[in-house]
């Protein structure tokens, strides 16, 4: 068992088999510096719970494929990324910090999928980005590649 | 709050009442040196031009100015600089002081505004002049603190230690500022003013901002609702953008200035690929990651890892042509097919195959026997079209595939709308012309059948045929692609391939290969250079990939898989000019 401590001083116990999916913690364990609690100063407990949930589910990735639990796992992944933007970015930051490749992949793909067909306005609104381009600059970009701005699939809704 | 009377007295005492007021407190690029410094760096000319000056007068004047810095923020830096030469003032120092007094004359009523309508927001600004003191190379830091609208504290101070980089100096300056800030907030608390908001610190140094915003350092970060994305590291944003198809990518240039930069970063990377040639391979399990291996012209490590993914990771590749990959997703009862462009990240789901037989190979499904139904799919016509052709000869396509090749059947190759497959039993190549909708077969040049390792491929527009029969033999198709009778041109015969490859393995590869070797695994042509063959094989239990140049009979180890992975077929791939859309 490995103990992890979030930045709001809550401790979590995780199985070693699960936690070594994180390259960072794996290295720490290998170097023998994970004997006591591992502090994770930039992950809050809410995000850490999410990450641990993922890690526990994905303990035996290889085994799952053989026993036909693949679909189950896929379903779990789909459910897992079903969260708000802020939460998703928190998980991405955590995955990036802990260096969990598969989780990073999953979340980034999910973020990309959500953005894929959105209009510029919708993206700005969803991610709360302030537009610092002038109208002329914007028009120039549109004129450069008008094909990118038209098409039936472009979705202007924010969700 | 102002010191007008004091300032005016200072001016009249110095008898500068008629002097011209100076707009700035000090001229630009004036570097004051101390006597000590001059002695050290001896300069005769300077000594003549810069004699010592009246020390009492200088000290008196500076004392007065020092008092004035209590209220005049703008002169604090110069007074700080001049203080260093109190012991041995020179003419140049006196000149600066006189100019300073003239500057004070410009606005003797310059004051500190203590606003009546004030909030308790604390703001600080800080900056550093790195190594500005010529004598000691120490940095000078300056800051001021505002409480609401009013300026309450400011300082210009030479640091005690030497900073080796401007970033370090700037960071230390922030530390000084924060120390002042903590003291000030403590004081405010003591006199009963509650500071509710977090104090803001402004600096002009990008590196300091990055150090300071390092998430490991600041644990008690407060989320600002207005900036979700900007909290993400730039790398991560680019990581997400990389997964977008080009159309979205180009559109998102419009989102903001920083996004436009990220997008051009992604795009320039994709452009880099356009001259890249390589091979996709995939480990045996269907959910395993697809890997891209480069054999490109010289620069092997130039392409980023983001190539290595397909939309949804449970796909496997079945064919590759024209810069597109045909991928298949296997479900229990059916297969879904996708066409994917790795360069633009676009994918296109091929509509469901209408009949029950579900093998699609490079867009064509092949049942056997003497009447052949070909269902083809074209992105131009869109729905599947069914062509029934009565064959004059039997064809063998299935079942054998699983024995002799790897798990997934290898698809045919295509040139200009004509598809070629190796017949798995008889020594012939089956051809389907998708433009004229007809079917025929070509004699293979060697008369060898499925007992031997054979391979066809397209390399720079030529159909190449290779076999492994007492060495390697390679033919190129000389007749045009739609000719019914094949004319072959024997290009290479290399008897000692095994030897070349093996010698190379011994020199390059690790020594854990056993004695047994077999070159049967897979063999593909380099997509651009017909004289290069890439051989996937295994020796003992180790799997490796060799690049064999037939022109000069030399072999090169491309990749050593060791015992870790089994890979399925290789797919030669040439990045097309960007952007290429579906």
UniProtKB/TrEMBL annotation, chain A:
Q: What's a single GO CC term here?
A: nucleus
Domain SKP1 component dimerisation residues, every copy = 102-148
Which SMART domains does the record cross-reference, listed alphabetically? Skp1 (SM00512)
Instruction: State the UniProt keywords alphabetically.
Output: Ubl conjugation pathway
GO MF annotation list = cullin family protein binding
Enumerate the Gene Ontology biological process terms.
Answer: jasmonic acid mediated signaling pathway; protein ubiquitination; SCF-dependent proteasomal ubiquitin-dependent protein catabolic process
Pathway the protein acts in: Protein modification; protein ubiquitination
Residues of the SKP1 component POZ domain: 1-59
Name the CDD domains for this protein.
BTB_POZ_SKP1
Which InterPro entries would you find in this protein's record? SKP1 (IPR016897), SKP1-like (IPR001232), SKP1-like_dim_sf (IPR036296), SKP1/BTB/POZ_sf (IPR011333), Skp1_comp_dimer (IPR016072), Skp1_comp_POZ (IPR016073)
Q: Which Pfam families match?
A: Skp1, Skp1_POZ
Q: How does it assemble?
A: Part of a SCF (SKP1-cullin-F-box) protein ligase complex.
Q: Which family does it belong to?
A: Belongs to the SKP1 family.
What exactly does this protein do?
A: Involved in ubiquitination and subsequent proteasomal degradation of target proteins. Together with CUL1, RBX1 and a F-box protein, it forms a SCF E3 ubiquitin ligase complex. The functional specificity of this complex depends on the type of F-box protein. In the SCF complex, it serves as an adapter that links the F-box protein to CUL1.
User: What's the name of the protein?
Assistant: SKP1-like protein
Which organism was this protein described from? Capsicum annuum
TrEMBL record, chain B:
Q: Which domain of life is it from?
A: Eukaryota
Question: Taking every annotated instance into account, which residue ranges of this chain make up the domain F-box?
Answer: 226-276
Q: Which SUPFAM superfamilies match?
A: DNA/RNA polymerases, F-box domain
Q: Which PROSITE patterns match?
A: FBOX
Pfam families linked: F-box (PF00646)
What name appears for this protein in its UniProt entry?
F-box domain-containing protein
* Organism per entry: Capsicum annuum
């Amino acid at each position: 068992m490995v103990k992890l401590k979030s930045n709001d001083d809550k401790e979590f116990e995780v199985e070693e088999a699960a936690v070594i999916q994180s390259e960072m913690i794996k290295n720490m364990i290998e170097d023998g510096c994970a004997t006591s609690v591992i502090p994770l100063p930039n992950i809050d407990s809410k995000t850490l719970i999410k990450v641990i949930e993922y890690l526990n589910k994905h303990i035996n990735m290889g085994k799952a494929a053989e026993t036909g639990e693949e679909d189950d796992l896929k379903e779990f992944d789909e459910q897992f990324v079903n969260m708000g933007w802020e939460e998703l970015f928190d998980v991405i930051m955590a995955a990036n910090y802990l260096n969990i490749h598969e989780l990073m992949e999953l979340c980034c793909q999910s973020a990309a999928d959500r953005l894929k067909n959105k209009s510029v306005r919708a993206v700005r609104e969803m991610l709360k980005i302030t537009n610092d381009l002038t109208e002329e600059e914007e028009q120039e970009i549109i004129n450069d590649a008008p094909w990118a701005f038209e098409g039936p699939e472009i979705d202007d809704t924010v969700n | 709050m102002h010191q007008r009377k004091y300032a005016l007295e200072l001016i009249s005492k110095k008898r500068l009442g008629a002097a011209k007021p100076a707009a700035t407190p000090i001229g630009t690029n004036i570097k004051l040196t101390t006597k000590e410094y001059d002695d050290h760096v001896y300069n005769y000319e300077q000594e003549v031009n810069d004699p010592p000056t009246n020390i009492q007068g200088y000290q008196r004047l500076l004392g007065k100015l020092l008092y004035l810095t209590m209220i005049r923020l703008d002169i604090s830096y110069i007074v700080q600089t001049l203080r260093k030469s109190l012991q041995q003032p020179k003419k140049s120092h006196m000149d600066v002081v006189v100019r300073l007094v003239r500057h004070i004359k410009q606005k003797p009523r310059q004051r500190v505004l203590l606003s009546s309508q004030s909030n308790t927001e604390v703001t600080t600004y800080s900056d550093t002049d790195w190594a500005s003191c010529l004598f000691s190379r120490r940095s000078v830091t300056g800051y001021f603190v505002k409480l609401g609208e009013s300026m309450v504290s400011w300082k210009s101070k030479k640091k005690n230690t030497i900073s080796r980089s401007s970033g370090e100096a700037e960071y230390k300056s922030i530390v000084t500022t924060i120390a002042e800030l903590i003291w000030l907030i403590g004081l405010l608390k003591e006199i009963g003013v509650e500071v509710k908001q977090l104090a803001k610190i402004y600096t002009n140094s990008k590196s300091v901002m990055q150090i300071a915003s390092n998430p490991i350092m600041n644990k008690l970060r407060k989320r600002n609702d207005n900036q979700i994305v900007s909290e993400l590291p730039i790398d991560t944003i680019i990581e997400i953008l990389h997964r977008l198809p080009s159309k979205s990518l180009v559109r998102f240039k419009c989102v903001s200035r920083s996004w436009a930069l990220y997008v051009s970063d992604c795009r320039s990377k994709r452009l880099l690929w356009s001259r890249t040639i390589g091979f996709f391979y995939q480990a045996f399990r269907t959910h395993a990651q697809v890997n891209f291996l480069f054999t490109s012209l010289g620069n092997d490590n130039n392409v980023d890892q983001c190539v290595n993914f397909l939309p949804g990771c449970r796909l496997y590749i079945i064919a590759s042509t024209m810069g597109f990959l045909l991928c298949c997703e296997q479900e229990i009862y059916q297969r879904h097919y996708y066409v994917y462009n790795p360069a633009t990240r676009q994918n296109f789901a091929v509509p469901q195959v209408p009949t029950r037989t579900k093998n699609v190979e490079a867009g064509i499904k092949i049942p056997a026997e003497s009447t052949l139904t070909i269902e083809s799919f074209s992105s131009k016509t869109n729905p599947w079209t069914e062509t029934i052709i009565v064959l004059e000869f039997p064809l063998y396509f299935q079942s054998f595939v699983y024995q002799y090749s790897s798990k997934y059947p290898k698809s045919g190759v295509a040139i200009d709308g004509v598809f070629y497959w190796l017949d798995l039993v008889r020594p012939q190549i089956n051809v389907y012309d998708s433009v004229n909708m007809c079917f025929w077969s070509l004699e293979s040049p060697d008369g060898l059948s499925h007992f031997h390792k054979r391979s066809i491929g397209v390399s720079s527009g030529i159909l190449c045929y290779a076999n492994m029969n007492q060495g390697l033999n390679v033919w190129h198709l000389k007749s045009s692609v739609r000719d019914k009778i094949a004319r072959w041109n024997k290009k290479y015969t290399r008897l000692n391939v095994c030897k070349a490859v093996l010698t190379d393995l011994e020199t390059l590869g690790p020594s854990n290969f056993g004695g047994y070797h077999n070159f049967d695994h897979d063999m593909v042509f380099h997509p651009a250079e017909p004289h290069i063959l890439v051989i996937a094989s295994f020796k003992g239990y180790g799997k490796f990939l060799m690049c064999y140049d037939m022109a000069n009979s030399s072999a090169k180890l491309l990749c050593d898989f060791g015992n870790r992975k089994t890979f399925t077929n290789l797919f030669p791939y040439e990045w097309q000019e960007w952007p290429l859309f579906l």
